Amino acid sequence: MAFFTAPKSGTADAYSSQAASLSLLPQDSNNPEAQSTKAVKANFITPRDPVIETANGGRLPAVPLDEAEKLNRFKEEAEHAGSRVGESIIRQDTTQLAAAQETDD
């Protein structure tokens, strides 16, 4: 299986774009509800069965396997690229997800 790898300078942009494309609501607004439905990561129930987790801890409808893999790959690349923008995006998504999981407990 061939994977597309985003250029190092664009890893944060690639992750953000992929997360927005998989999100439930358009991410181009300042609507707090839209931000909470942003795709954050793909959890794999089986190797071929991804479930997309949102910033608010929700789940999105089924997505193609390759799109879920791209989301996780771009997120990992952004985390390892060391860019401040990438770290900021990942931190924001992770913080929203953690807060949502705390309210569920």
Structural summary, described in words:
There is one protein chain. With 105 residues, the protein is an alpha+beta fold. Helix content is 52%, strand content 13%. The protein has helices spanning 11-22, 32-36, 65-81, 84-104; strands at residues 39-46, 49-54. The protein has a two-stranded antiparallel sheet with strand order 1-2. A hairpin with a 2-residue loop joins strand 1 and strand 2. Helix 1 (11-22) packs antiparallel against helix 3 (65-81) and helix 1 runs parallel beside helix 4 (84-104). The model is unreliable at 1-8 (pLDDT under 50).
- The secondary structure category is alpha+beta
Largest sheet: 2 strands, antiparallel
Morphology: globular
User: What Rg, in angstroms, do the CA atoms define?
Assistant: 13 Å
Summarize the structure.
The protein is of the alpha+beta class and 105 residues long. The chain contains four helices and two strands, in the order H-H-E-E-H-H.
Key terms for this structure?
single chain; 105 residues; two-stranded antiparallel ribbon; globular
Please describe the topology of this protein.
Blueprint: H1 11-22, H2 32-36, E1 39-46, E2 49-54, H3 65-81, H4 84-104
Antiparallel strand pairs: 1-2
